User: Fold these one by one.
Assistant:
Number 1:
Amino acid sequence: MLLGEMVALGRVPRTRPWSRGGPEERRIVLAALDAVGLADHVDAPCVELSGGEKRRAVLARGLAQQCPVMLLDEPTNHLDVAWQLRLLETVAAQSQTLVVTIHDLDLALRSFDRLAVVGWPEGSDSRHEPATIVAQGTPAEVLGADRIRTHFGIGSVQVPHPYNDQPHLLIHPREETPTP
């Protein structure tokens, strides 16, 4: 299967069987591939893509579907750091509501408007209780040093980037927060 064909499968819920493949569909597929940096691979066989390219191709298929809500499970997994940032910028630029699971706390802090931490309430026996939302709110609130220490067992501090003031999360393996 060619990459363009695979991405066009995202259009199936949006089109009638006899209306697939027209110029508008091609434009949408190419725009989705362009958004993830794969427009020049539209006619490449999917089996020839790297792991990161395959991950981006699946995202392109989701973008081509043009749904109002997009669910992404670890979308930055298997991507190099430049593509992690570009992918998050790409999905943030969409008009869709995003629901994303992500384990990189620093990327979560600087990439999303609202966060929820899923885990077990402090003092619970996690083997016998289902996980629940233990915190939700703005990234700065949800990823405060106390919460990270409580739920992840590590120390942390939020610091602004020296050039653009974007917050970053510095972590360290000890639970205590160092004093500057």
Number 2:
Amino acid sequence: MNQLYELRFTKESKKDIDKLSKERKQKLKKILISQIALTPHSGKKLTGDLMGFFSVRLSHKDRVIYSFDEEKHCIYIHRTRTHYGE
């Protein structure tokens, strides 16, 4: 069985989460626990200014943007809302 990574949230991601609907928060929790915390490499590798970050779709317009540290076995959640600048 895979060991879960520790999840840490930035101030921005906490603000994003506060703005999510109840249903979206439940979906986020499921994604964090069943996907990202188990296999952080499973997200889409980002390029350009976000090189080193990964993304998982939360909804049509919202994404979970995160990075992780293998040595510390820790995942950093940076954003949980739109990547369209809204």
Number 3:
Amino acid sequence: MAKLNPLAYWIGYGLLSIVTGLLVTWWLLAQVNFLYPVWYSGLAIDQHIARYAPQNRHRQHFERTDRAEHQRLFAALNTAIHARGQGLAELRYYDPAGQPLGTLLTDPERRHLYDVAELVQRVLPLAGLAAGGWLLWSAVLLWRRRAPPPLRYFVLGSVLAMALLGVVVGVMGPVHLFYVWHEWVFPPENPWFFYYQDSLMTTLLKAPDVFIAIGALWWVSAWAVALGLWGLLRRLAQRSNA
């Protein structure tokens, strides 16, 4: 290990730390429904629903639902996506008195969310492998009583990753990147783009705005977690060498 280029060595460790941070923060954000209540207020999703729900060509009366119901529905979508799509077909929406108003998702929407659930099931294990690589790397460092990379190298690896993402987003634009990413990862035979007038799901999410907000929070939080992991390992190494 000592014969490897130190800069490349530690940048690699920093990148693994970022992937580990992404995995950890994804799990944490999923537990709090990706802070949907915060975006609900910040993005004025209630006004968005009030405008487009009455225009929906396939579902009626969604404008009669309230904030609590919107948050419940988002939480149900989050749970279903992390459970291979279980419960999507049965998802209904209710008025404040508890009276059923209709089924939330159309068949094309359900197929898309099944694709999303399948993507999550494929990607999370890969991120878990990267996190396992970081854990093994860290254990070897502690076993050999070597400190983690100097902060400047760790930050350099992290900043390179963030800068690369920033360039891609800046050149393509966040909305265009959102669409290109969907075209790349989802089966072409299953629709993924839905107009607000055709989809309560898209209206509820105010897509793509809420995804851009969640993505930005996820990335910044992952970097903070990675930095925290670096600090923890640094302290453990110092104690083992004391």
